[in-house]
């Protein structure tokens, strides 16, 4: 679930690609489905940037719901897309350098830590995207609208959601697009398999996704409902 505060945030350059396009490609490569982008798209430019991807473009929640409301909105859309969805990667659009290995690792770790919030770590610092269990969505709806994304995570923990930190050796989880990709610290990879076993990164995805099935004409559009009339300007 990619959160973009504004169309400019969604479309900001990420090494030659719009941010949301780069993130969508990485999420797909890492095995994350469905992919939901929560962003305002008044002129269709965000939709255009996502053309050819397997993405649902969702209108944002009302402004007065705050960042937590945008996260809840994305989870609601993801669950509507695939009813068996039991967790969501909350991915602010500014974190464009996260690698597909990190996506795969968080999904695998979720398999052995169901119900926990998983936070990727690089050199001891917590980062993004954060894997949030679907059962935390009701707690999200109680978070105050002025709470920023890191504060939202803190409030979920205060509400009793268990957190597991996962050291993945990926500098992209803590360095956003304000840092040029060429200037990132070296990627070192996880010190041990996040789910307790060795795998080849992305191999399972490559085996099960047929090229013809993965090629789509463009993003699906989730219902805007009330959200369409509201100002979408949220941090992300």
Mean pLDDT: 87
Low-confidence stretches: 197-217, 226-232
Identify the overall geometry.
globular
Quaternary structure of the protein: single chain
Distance between the termini: 11 Å
In terms of DSSP E residues, the strand content is: 15-25%
- What is the count of DSSP helices, taking H or I runs of 4+ residues? 9
Helical content stands at 25-40%
Strand order of the largest sheet: 9-6-1-4-5-11
Rg for CA atoms: 16 Å
Structure summary, number of beta strands: 11
Following the backbone from N to C, one meets helices and strands in this order, namely: EHEEHEHEHEHEEEHHEHHE
* Class by alpha and beta content: alpha/beta
Characterize the structure shown.
Helix 2 (19-30) packs across helix 5 (100-112). The termini are close together. Residues 197-217 and 226-232 have low confidence and may be disordered. This protein is globular. The strands form 3 sheets. A 6-stranded mixed beta sheet has the order 9-6-1-4-5-11, sandwiched between helices. It is built from 9 helices and 11 strands. By secondary structure, the chain is of the alpha/beta class.
């Amino acid at each position: 679930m990619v959160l973009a505060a504004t169309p400019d945030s969604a479309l900001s350059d990420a090494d030659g690609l719009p941010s949301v396009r780069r993130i969508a490609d990485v999420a797909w490569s890492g095995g994350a489905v469905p992919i939901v982008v929560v962003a305002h798209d008044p002129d269709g430019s965000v939709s255009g940037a996502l053309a050819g991807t397997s993405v649902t473009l969702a209108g944002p929640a009302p402004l007065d719901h705050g960042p937590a409301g945008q996260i809840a909105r994305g989870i609601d859309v993801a669950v509507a897309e695939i009813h068996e969805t039991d967790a969501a990667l909350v991915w602010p659009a500014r974190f464009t350098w996260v690698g597909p290995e990190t996506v795969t690792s968080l999904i695998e770790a979720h398999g052995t830590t169901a119900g926990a919030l998983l936070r990727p770590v690089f050199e001891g610092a917590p980062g993004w995207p954060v894997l949030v269990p679907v059962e935390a969505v009701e707690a999200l709806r109680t978070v105050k609208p002025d709470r920023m994304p890191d504060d939202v995570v803190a409030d979920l923990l205060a509400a009793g959601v268990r957190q597991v930190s996962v050291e993945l050796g990926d500098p992209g989880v803590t360095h956003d697009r304000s840092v040029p990709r060429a200037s990132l610290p070296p990627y070192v990879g996880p010190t041990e398999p996040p789910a307790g076993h060795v795998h080849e990164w992305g191999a399972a995805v490559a085996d099960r996704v047929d090229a013809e099935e993965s090629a789509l004409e463009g993003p699906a559009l989730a219902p805007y409902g009330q959200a369409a009339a509201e100002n979408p300007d949220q941090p992300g």
